[in-house]
TrEMBL record:
<dbReference type="InterPro" id="IPR000653">
    <property type="entry name" value="DegT/StrS_aminotransferase"/>
</dbReference>
<dbReference type="InterPro" id="IPR015421">
    <property type="entry name" value="PyrdxlP-dep_Trfase_major"/>
</dbReference>
<dbReference type="GO" id="GO:0008483">
    <property type="term" value="F:transaminase activity"/>
</dbReference>
<keyword id="KW-0663">Pyridoxal phosphate</keyword>
<dbReference type="InterPro" id="IPR015422">
    <property type="entry name" value="PyrdxlP-dep_Trfase_small"/>
</dbReference>
<dbReference type="Pfam" id="PF01041">
    <property type="entry name" value="DegT_DnrJ_EryC1"/>
</dbReference>
<keyword id="KW-0032">Aminotransferase</keyword>
<protein>
    <submittedName>
        <fullName>DegT/DnrJ/EryC1/StrS family aminotransferase</fullName>
    </submittedName>
</protein>
<keyword id="KW-0808">Transferase</keyword>
<comment type="similarity">
    <text>Belongs to the DegT/DnrJ/EryC1 family. L-glutamine:2-deoxy-scyllo-inosose/scyllo-inosose aminotransferase subfamily.</text>
</comment>
<dbReference type="InterPro" id="IPR015424">
    <property type="entry name" value="PyrdxlP-dep_Trfase"/>
</dbReference>
Length: 225
């Protein structure tokens, strides 16, 4: 059953608020609208990139019926805290997971992540945590905003590294979902995050080339104009 079906089956309908993340694709917010509800955006935890429990509680109102938690990049959300908010506020907590993968693929990526964690400089590597499957290896290129990250990305692409910006525009900034809300961690993540390649099929030489390309930059670049 899809997200729309789950919401309708749970009785979510016209006028009901559903709390969703703005860091990610618009498909979750679109599903809420299709079910007749109103998407309400809450901020994310800066480590997991998933909904932050305190932020969810802060935006919940008497009209809130549900929360949709999306697990990001292979790192699970803190369902203990989010579930507690749901129980305390009487909210339905739905999870949107990521595609299942073979044990071998996951363990290879975890080994690659450990290698990168110990060698990358000039970027902030993801915080290691139990259960992280590294569907994407997302680093941060902190600085004065998006130009730093984008300049860094262009530089390493020029060295043959196939990186990508995971979230270019938060959902609450899209014209069809524009909201006057303050989501500082969402905005910061959208400006700083960069997904580096970490496929299980990568060789040690390819990983070394990735590390060399990143570390050769010597940290942040000047903003691109």
């Amino acid at each position: 059953m899809g997200t729309v079906g789950m919401l309708k089956a749970a009785g979510v309908g016209l006028g009901d608020e559903v709390i969703v993340p703005a860091y990610g694709n618009a498909d979750v917010a679109e599903a809420v609208v299709q079910a007749g509800g109103l998407p309400v955006f809450a901020d994310i935890d800066p480590e997991t990139y998933c909904l932050d429990a305190a932020a969810v509680e802060a935006v919940a109102t008497a009209r809130t019926a549900a929360v949709i938690v999306v697990h990001r990049f292979g790192r699970p959300a803190d369902m203990g805290q989010l579930g507690e908010v749901g129980r305390r506020r009487g909210l339905l907590v739905l999870e949107q997971g990521e595609s299942s993968e073979s044990y071998g693929e996951v363990t290879r990526r975890q080994a690659h992540a450990k290698y990168l964690d110990g060698r990358l400089t000039g970027v902030r590597t993801p915080e290691p945590t139990r259960g992280h499957t590294y569907q994407e290896y997302v680093v941060r290129v902190p600085g004065n905003g998006r130009p730093d990250r984008d300049a860094f990305a262009r530089a390493i692409r020029g060295k043959g590294v196939d990186c990508r910006v995971p979230v270019k525009t938060p959902v609450h900034r899209l014209p069809e979902f524009r909201r006057d809300v303050v989501l500082p961690e969402t905005e910061r993540a959208a400006d700083e995050t960069l997904a580096l390649p970490i496929q299980g099929s990568m060789t040690r030489r390819e990983l070394q080339r990735l590390v060399s390309a990143c570390n050769a930059l010597g940290g942040l670049l000047q903003p691109a104009f």
